[in-house]
Every structure is written in structure tokens, then in C-alpha cells.
Amino acid sequence: MLEFIISYFEGSVKMSFLREQMSMPSQTNKPNIVYVMTDQMRATAMGCAGVEQVRTPTLDHFASEGTRFTRAISNSPACCPARATLWTGMHTSEHHVVSNDIQLRTDVKSFAQSLNDIGYKCGYIGKWHLDNNDRGIYVPPGPRRQGFDDYWAAYNCNHLYFDGYYYVDDNPDPVWIDGYEPMAQTRLAVDYIHRKAGEEEPFFLVVSWGPPHDPYREVPQRYLDLYPEESLQLKANVGDKVNRKHISGYYAHMTALDECFADILEGIEDAGIRENTIVVFTSDHGDMLYSQNEIHKSKPWIESINIPLIMRWPSRIADGRVTDGPISIVDMMPTLLSLCGADIPHTVQGKDLSAYVLGDETAAQETVFINQPIVPDIFTHYEWRGVVTRTHTYASMRRKPWILYDDKRDPDQLRNLVDLPESEDQQASMERLMQHWLEKLNDPFEDSDEVSAKYYKGSKNGIMPIFENETVSVTKRLRRQTRKQLLDAANPTNRT
Length: 496
Description:
Elements: E1 2-9, E2 12-19, E3 32-39, H1 57-65, E4 67-69, E5 72-73, H2 79-88, H3 92-95, H4 111-116, E6 121-127, E7 151-155, E8 165-168, E9 175-176, H5 181-197, E10 203-212, H6 221-224, H7 244-270, E11 277-283, H8 302-305, E12 309-312, E13 321-323, E14 327-328, H9 329-340, H10 354-357, E15 368-372, E16 384-388, E17 392-396, E18 401-406, H11 424-440, H12 448-455, H13 470-490
Parallel strand pairs: 3-10, 3-11, 4-13, 5-14, 6-7, 6-10
Antiparallel strand pairs: 1-2, 4-12, 7-8, 8-9, 11-12, 15-16, 16-17, 17-18
Helix pairs in contact: 2-9, 5-7
Protein name: Sulfatase
GO molecular function: arylsulfatase activity
Family: Belongs to the sulfatase family.
């Protein structure tokens, strides 16, 4: 058992932690893990962050039951690179998923495979996005599922929130969803949790929702009604180029997901496994959403790289704790493997931060590495590398520094400190930290064309041509036509 010994001296309170074998659970008490991941959610898009006016009562309460990491970072803020980093514990220079729609390598031991080795049953529900550029492809059982062999209710990539589909286990025929996709996925998750709760083996379940990634308006109307466009209070760094409908829809998705998350937590409670289940709520990357006059992701600003991260494990992870030590996606695999008593593969480049997660502030790391090796024309401007500390964000292009912000004094990143005389020492320090990471990772910081020639063959202007196989594309088109006809019949004024 972990004992909290509180010592009082000179008016300050310090906490020391005694761990009697806590870092290596026995076979009989290994914790379950429920890993809930949104897509394109920035860290401030929840009420408990205290920044944006978005209604997330479940997340706010959940944060009071666990630890919220305010400096959680997406090392490579785009869908596929971030997910590849999560499941391998490796940076882009090693897992080679340098942009979207690249199939993840199968020759290194993954997160789920490492848990399989110690008896875990691993299930996956929702968006995968780690296969090839056929976004409607059926990912067959085997290595391409990266160890999620117990249950599979997933698809490669689609963002069809009212016309969604998924593939189940070894059935290559898609199952089509009626209604809002995350709600259907949540029902599947609760069913899986209840099934596994009665078994002896621990389980690892990933629930990967598509929202709040665009399309921002594909969300039930009752949630959109909560956020009238004219009443939205925009962040200070949002310029004149803004689509309020997008921000309204983004918030609406978040409130809908908050209700789905409540159902998952209730399912864990009803199954009687709350005390021995680690619940993680996070995302793959953020969304600029018109901050800095930018959209989408793949940029080094805080809205793109800073993701939500809340972890709950009753009696083990402190409740109500808010901490700002840097922690990143590449660290999630080794950290959670350590908490479960699994071996960390030698290929993992992330850091085991289990001691920090359990409350030891001295175990926090000083910096995390961020990067964008490919330049997708629609997302970013340059290939870049950078570092994040507790207090600063720094990124550089290949030939000159790009951004430097003091995030404590300037949380909206309104004043770029690059090349200002007053920040000369700080900039030099951050540049040294970045160069240290490049050397450590053996990252040559090549230009986009060089990287594409190695790992992104067939791409053009930083984007891979994408498609859906005929079975999926035809059915999707017919379903959309039918839904439009039903809407037009119910609302004749909607016809054009």
C-alpha cells in the first residue's frame, strides 16, 4: 500500500511517498486500463481548465477525482504521427509515421503487445488511423492491429459522425451506425467493460472518438443550441479571421463527449471495478481553431500541442491534484506499462514517469521534444522542431528560430520573444535543449522533400492522396442521400 506521510515544518507541508512494492502489482491485482482518447481536442476545451466557456461537468468532476496534467504535450501534433508515438513509445524519426495515412510498422513491440505478455486482454473501439491511405479499409486480425486482439470495433479513418461504420473482430463487412457515432461507440465500450469485469484477466480498453475533430457541425442539434454563435467569448489570440460556427460546433461536440464519458464512468462503477481501474482521458493533438489566425493542427503553438490529460486510479493517483510538469504522448506507453508491472521494450524512447504520476513532483522531467517533419500545405508553413518546458515553448525552422513564448506570463502566446534582446539568454538556452534532443534522437532535421522520399512516397505537397474502397463509399453516399431526404421531408423549409 502507498502511505501518505505528511510532515509539517516551518509552516510548509511536504509530502513523502512510501512505496512498498507498489510499482510492480502482482498478477492478481494488476489494474485494468480504460484509455479514452478524443481527436483534435486542445487542453483548454474543458471547464476545469478555466479558459474557455465549454460545458463539461463530467470532466470537471473527474479531474477532482484524479490528477490533471496541465503541461501534457503532443510530440507530433497530427493524427497518425501522434497515434504511432502513443502505441510504440517512439518518436517520428524512429516509427517513421511522419504524417497522416502511413501504415505503422509492425516490427517493434507495441503498447498492447507488451500488456498481452503479462496476461492483459486488449480491446479497441473507434478511430484507428494507422493503416494506409484507403481510409475505409478493413484492418485484418494480426500484426497490423498492434496487439488489440481481444476485441476490435474500429475503422481506419472517416469522421462520419452521422454516417459512421466500423468493423468487428474478423468480419470484413462494415457495421453501419445510426445516430451520433460516439454514443454508439460508448455503448460498445460499456458492454465490453461489463463483460471483462467478470473475468480473471485484467483488460486494456481504448475508446477512440472522432470528435471534436471537424466536421464541427455534425453533432446533435441540442448540443449546438447550447452555444449560440453571437454569445461566444473568443480567446484573446483569436484574430478577425474566425468562423464562429466552427467554434460553436467544437464546443457542442465537447459537451456531447462529456455525456458519453459519464456513461463510461458509470459503466466502470456499475461493473464494480472502479478501485482497480486506471482511467485516462486525453487526446492525440489539439486544434488551433482560429487562434493565431490559424486552423487545424501540426503547428507549434499551444493550442495545437497542448492536450488534455487526466488520470484517475483511486487510492494510488492523488485526487484533485493539478500539476504542470511536462509529460507527453511518447511517455504514456512506458509510464502505464510501469504502473501495470509490464516490461518496457528496449525500443521505447519515452520516459517512465510513473513516480511523477503517483505524486512525486521531483520525478518530473524538464523538457519534452516536439516536431513536424513534413509540411502539409493545408496545415503548416515549415518543417519544424522544438522543445517545451514547464514555462516556455520554443520552435525552430531548419535555418532560423520561429517562436519563443513565456507561457507562464503569456498563456495566450501573444508576444513572440524570438530574437528580442531581452530574451537572448532564454532563446539560447532553449536552442541548446532542442539541439540536445536532435542529437539524442539522431534526428537530422531534413527538409520535407527528403523525409517524404524516405517515408511518404506517393505524397504531394505534404499530403497523401486518400480514398475509400467502393463498398464503403457507395453505401455512405446512399445513406447520406436517404438522411437528407428524411430531413427535407420533416423540414420543407430546408430545401434549396
